[in-house]
């Protein structure tokens, strides 16, 4: 039996194809993979949005002397917050969600709102959110095991994502809802800047969650094969998954099941449409 590894950290780990050696988470709140954790928190935001009167970010101010309507219109047309404003508000309202040191590290990253909205949008489209969520990625290299002519993913490669799964399980529900009552308006304003025409946040969130729920949980010993300078899945069903789905897949069966179970709870509790539509 022999073991091979490759270096390069997040850019060469889950999502898409794997280079060969030498080349790259009130109701339920919180869940999703590295990028999963952020989608779950976003679902908490949408739960708050569903409970309170919402102002469509694209609706113009209604005519009339009522001050409340004028204010609503102004808010709808407000520009997105600056990176500094958004980060400060997010950290202030979300620091009590978890005492896990890893969560504190996540909150220390610049551009939290921009990263969150972009990641949700990417996942809903099946694209990799790696560029905006690289801070959640592992630093250890991906490894495979070769035994009797069969190459499988080394379990240690899955263990690299245990901290992400641990943080997802540590998020405080009540604090999450309270935090998003404060942060949601900022997130809405940022999302409008990247939303495709006619697509609401609810639609995007529902699509992102369903996209990840569609990923089959593989056996512990997932076989891969070499294709030129990269590793690909031997199972065509797995290899045919989107880049976003492969990110979740490569977190390993145990971490996948934790994340998908939370996502199903969210999908039901938030009454999101099944199938993401």
From TrEMBL:
Name this polypeptide is given = DUF3014 domain-containing protein
The cross-references to Pfam families, in alphabetical order and at most eight, read: DUF3014
Q: Which parts of this chain are annotated as the region Disordered?
A: 1-23, 56-91
Q: Which InterPro entries match?
A: DUF3014
Give the highest taxon in the source lineage: Bacteria
Q: Where is the composition biased (Low complexity)?
A: 56-77
